[in-house]
Specification:
This protein is mainly β and 152 residues long. The protein has one helix spanning 2-10, and strands spanning 43-46, 52-59, 69-77, 89-96, 101-102, 108-111, 117-122, 128-138, 141-151.
């Protein structure tokens, strides 16, 4: 027994180590910034590949057939859902997949005072199932999120 212990010591064997403490993230944490919370009356959807959390509200909510409406949108990385991003490009559009057509209008999109984006001039010109599209572009990558809306 004693020879075994001496042999292990001589060969540089090390006793089992305790598991390493988890590494801490030195990047800014949400608590280091003013925390943002989604405004009341908003809806949320995650983009198809999971990179973005889109928080939005339509005005009016729900949109009405034949009436212009707008959408206020906040784009957050899913890894930081309490920090809206203004450094991405956002396109908003809509289509009726069953009818194979989109809207008759192209919305205008601009930064909003609330830290997000505002898309104006959308119009659902007929009743039925619509999909509202949010295309977020960062660099050369565009990722889509979509929600289904029933228009009466």
């Amino acid at each position: 027994m004693l020879l075994c212990g001496l042999a292990m010591t001589a060969c540089g064997a090390v006793p089992a180590q305790q598991p390493a403490a988890p590494q801490t993230d030195v990047r800014a944490k949400p608590s280091d910034h003013a925390s943002w919370q989604a405004p009341l009356g908003t809806h949320a959807v995650v983009s198809n590949d999971g990179a973005w959390r889109i928080v939005y509200r339509t005005e009016p909510d729900p949109p009405e057939r034949g009436t212009l409406f707008s959408v206020e949108v906040w784009v957050c990385a899913t890894s930081a859902p309490d920090r809206p991003r203004k450094d991405v490009e956002l396109l908003v559009d809509a289509a009726m997949p069953q009818h194979q057509h989109g809207m008759n209008r192209v919305p205008t999109i601009s930064p909003s005072d609330s830290g997000g984006f505002r898309a104006q001039g959308l119009l659902f010109h007929m009743a039925g199932s619509w999909e509202l599209y949010f295309d977020v572009t960062e660099g050369a990558v565009t990722e889509r999120a979509q929600v289904k809306l029933e228009v009466e």
